[in-house]
Prior knowledge:
By secondary structure, the chain is α+β, with helices and mostly antiparallel strands. The chain has 9 helices and 17 strands. Helix 1 runs parallel beside helix 6 (161-184). The longest helix has 24 residues, at 161-184.
Amino acid sequence: MKILFWGTPAFAVPSLRALDDEGFDIVGVVTQPDRPAGRGRRLRPSDVKEVALEQGFPILTPEMPRGEDFMAEIRALEPDISVVVAYGHILKPDVLDVPTMGSINVHASLLPELRGAAPINWAIARGFTETGVTIMRMAEAMDAGAIIHQVPEPIFPDETASELTVRLSELGAGALIEALALMSAGVAEEREQDHDAATFASKVSREVARIDWHAPADDVAAHTRGMDAVPGAWTRLMEAPVKLFRPTVWREEEVGALDPEGLKTNGGSPTLPVDTDEGTVILATASDGVVVRCSDGAVAFAEVQPPGRKRISVSDWINGRGIAVGQRFE
């Protein structure tokens, strides 16, 4: 089976390697052009391109996957099927129809749930306890094609989007090989999605990643884990943006146990009354982290990224006097 592979980020790499390891004939790899990266803004190839270069696969890097010249290039490769894994552009029907067996996609959710660009982020941010991967037939409508194969996967407590991405990338690679085996044997049963049950996972933007301190602690923690590591859940401290990571929920009774009147200390650190405004730091210690009041309960954060700095432990931030009890995040 001759495969034209489409992919860009690290999530797509296990699928590309799995196809190669299983002996599929990879006639070409389509990926995004090199982009500026790092402080020096030097051009950097995509993760998929690096693997394609290493393995000697033919590489195409169009700015947009369209136009007569590009169409002629992919037709000349004579692929039997296109495999698309987080490529980064919506493909038009004329592109999807080039291979004789059409085009399939590895999607990181149990469709029809979480169609769209950021299913992993939103599965965690919305408090899901299970997700998975879907191998689907690609259609003109986004993530709306027939389902060929699905594999469910639990979401672990306190798991971040970054961690789940790694697990689902490997799961997706295995599911892809299984789906291709079913298709090769002629026993794949494609079933249409229930479009009325569809939910959507739009692209995560910086504005979307901002923390809402008026939400309950469970929601704030889930949001923080869902935005980790990119773009990163953030807030403002004295007008400066700060990213927060590694949340732990404090229930209302745990907050109240600190000191309901705000008159005592906890491990040498002052505490504030339980009726403190949302977003206010009610405790800051190396052992507890930075504990921030929410509408119901509080969230303790173990890592932080202050403006212009790398991600550090909150103990370093506290010791460096970057944060203190009574300060408020906006």
